[in-house]
Amino acid sequence: MLTTNPFDDDKLREECGVFGVFGSSDAAALTALGLHALQHRGQEAAGIVAYDGSDFPAHRASGQVGDIFGSQDVIESLPGHRAVGHVRYSTAGGKGLRNVQPLFADFEFGGLAIAHNGNLTNALAVRDRLVRRGSIFQSTADTEVFIHLIATSLYEKIVDRLIDALRQVEGAYSLVVMTQKKLIGVRDPLGVRPLVLGKLHDSYIFSSETVGLDIVGAEFIRDVEPGEIVEITDEGIRSIKPFKPVKSRFCIFEHVYFARPDSIVEGTSVYDVRKNIGRELARESAVDADVVVPIPDSGVPSALGYAEESGIPFELGIIRNHYVGRTFIEPTDQIRHLGVKLKHNANPGKLKGKRVVLVDDSIVRGTTSTKIVELVRQAGAAEVHMRITSPPTAHPCFYGVDTPSKEKLMAANHKIDEMAKMIGVDSLAFVSIDGLYRATGLPGRDAENPAFCDACFTGDYPIRLVDHTAEENKNRKLSQLVERRTA
């Protein structure tokens, strides 16, 4: 029997979010607001490092942005005209405070703070080489690899040291780096992870998504290009492209789930793409039904698209409680039995006696899906048909998304009809990979030259998995100091 932790939505966890401000007296406050808009990308911890002209005041803590930076005293403790911030869900390294970003180090050229979204696929290999050369690591986050590569580089200029470091790593990353004179934004050569550039009056801003610009009233300038380094100083903006151009492979799951629906990613409205996915599903997997119901919140735009295309009425048959925090109550066995009821409740008047199409973004382990279906059936639904707005998630992600091992992914171990029986639905269908690509405006997936990183669906990993294929690294865990909280 599948059990559900009410504090685990059984989703692919968002990677992280990064934000940076250059040239504003309210840099820390703007960064806190930006991180608030990016909260969906990481709810475990947050941090801000500022620069006041001589020092780098910092504040990092576990928890959500509003709790950490909601006090005026905290914001006033972070003076300066530039700042860099980070929201985190741990994908590499543990949950200790030592891993909370931005990371900071003092070099011969001065201080440097770095915030990183993504994962390096050769972090262990590079780390081993650095340790043999005498580097002493303080965290288990792969972000610290950048710190040591910059420190050991023989180049003189900071940007050259950064380029030297980037040439030695492989993986998916967006970085915001702050020094005493610069704010630097970087994307990996394939552009797997997002990063945008904006402007607010005379200030420049980096953000993982355009919603980070929206919340502070900044104007969107453009996406940082794959493989590009954007350097901001008092003299203005400079673009550096140290890598040989290659076709980008932006993460398609940003469109499916990670990005906020009101964001514009790579020039495309996330909301529009999600509605298009719903339309594709209605065309590909039509079913006789009375009502289309989204599993909130990520299923809402696609359910609207499904309803419009199919002509079946849209209803909010499931209501989400947005005020249940992850530490609401100790998850005892009795509370676990309540399952998703702490976060989702059926709307019986819209479900009783109805043939229901449930729309959700993905099925990972299947635990939450099972409980949602049970909830809908208990409300009196005559039939339950589930439609998923992504192809089956059959492969883990190694590029900055926290996914279970392949053995725990339901789609990796069961056929669709088996999954339907396990979840308890009358029918189950996923959007096709070509349908997903069509929803973004493309004719379909070109197997020889895919436009996106879709490895979690296809197993086609565009970046070498150095650490994960090395025999000596299998089941390896890094040593780390165990940090315990005291009252």
Automatic annotation (TrEMBL):
Residues 16-235 form the Glutamine amidotransferase type-2 domain. Mg(2+) binds at S298, D360, D361. CDD domains: GPATase_N, PRTases_typeI. InterPro entries: GATase_2_dom, Ntn_hydrolases_N, PRTase-like, PRTase_dom, PurF, PurF_N. The keyword Endoplasmic reticulum does not apply. [4Fe-4S] cluster binds at C251, C397, C453, C456. Its EC number is 2.4.2.14. The active site is at C16 (nucleophile). The keyword Transmembrane helix does not apply. Keywords: 4Fe-4S, Glutamine amidotransferase, Glycosyltransferase, Iron, Iron-sulfur, Magnesium, Metal-binding, Purine biosynthesis, Transferase. It is an enzyme of class 2 (transferase). It catalyses: 5-phospho-beta-D-ribosylamine + L-glutamate + diphosphate = 5-phospho-alpha-D-ribose 1-diphosphate + L-glutamine + H2O. Its cofactor is [4Fe-4S] cluster; Mg(2+). Binds 1 [4Fe-4S] cluster per subunit. Pathway: Purine metabolism; IMP biosynthesis via de novo pathway; N(1)-(5-phospho-D-ribosyl)glycinamide from 5-phospho-alpha-D-ribose 1-diphosphate: step 1/2. PANTHER family: AMIDOPHOSPHORIBOSYLTRANSFERASE. NCBIfam families: purF. Catalyzes the formation of phosphoribosylamine from phosphoribosylpyrophosphate (PRPP) and glutamine. In the C-terminal section; belongs to the purine/pyrimidine phosphoribosyltransferase family. This is Amidophosphoribosyltransferase. It comes from Thalassospira marina. The gene is purF.
